Each structure stands twice: as structure tokens, then as C-alpha cells.
Amino acid sequence: MVKYDVLKNGEIEIRWLDEGKIEDLFKQKKIKIKHETFGVLNDKYLLTASSKELQKFIKKYMASNDTEKWEASTKFTLSKTDAKE
Beta-carbon neighbour count of residue 12 at 10 Å? Predict the structure, then answer.
């Protein structure tokens, strides 16, 4: 899942959901949402819930007090440039 914010300076910041946090929530049995595990070590998660269930999960996740929920290692910031040819 991806979250994007439009910053005051017009830049767009794109962040991916922190997979480590999601993995911890599954292991601690704090979330119950349909998913599959895959990968060589069966340690990757693919959320397979319906759109309605995913929306409910995201609303609850966004409302949580976890200030680092979007602190994944991958983040992009897009800036508008004046491209002159």
C-alpha cells in the first residue's frame, strides 16, 4: 500500500506501508485480515482481503497512535521542474 502527501511547497511525497510493522502486527495477532505468505522463507505478506476490508483496515491503521507506521525504507519525493527544450 502506498500513501502520498502533497506538501506545502507543491512536492508530492510517496511512502510505502512499512512491511515490518505489518509483519509484527500479524505475529502479535493484533490484526486479522485475509492474507497469504510467500517467498523462499514464507516471510512476505500479500493482503488478499476485499476492497471493503482493506479500506476498513487502512482507516483503523491511519487512526492508530503509531507515529512510525509509514517509516518504510522506500520513500520518493516528486518535484515539479521547469523543463526547457
Answer: 13
Please state, for a pLDDT cut of 90, what percent of the chain lies above it.
12
Using DSSP, state whether 83 is helix, strand or coil.
Answer: coil
- The C-alpha R_g of the chain, in whole angstroms, comes to 16
pLDDT band at 34 (very low <50, low <70, confident <90, very high): very high
Residues 33, 47 contacting (CB under 8 angstroms): yes
Instruction: Give every CB contact of residue 22 below 8 A, 6+ residues apart in sequence.
Output: 31, 45
Please state the pTM of the whole predicted model: 0.60
φ, ψ (nearest 5 deg) of residue 31: -130, 145
pLDDT for the residue 49: 93
Q: What is the DSSP letter of 41?
A: T
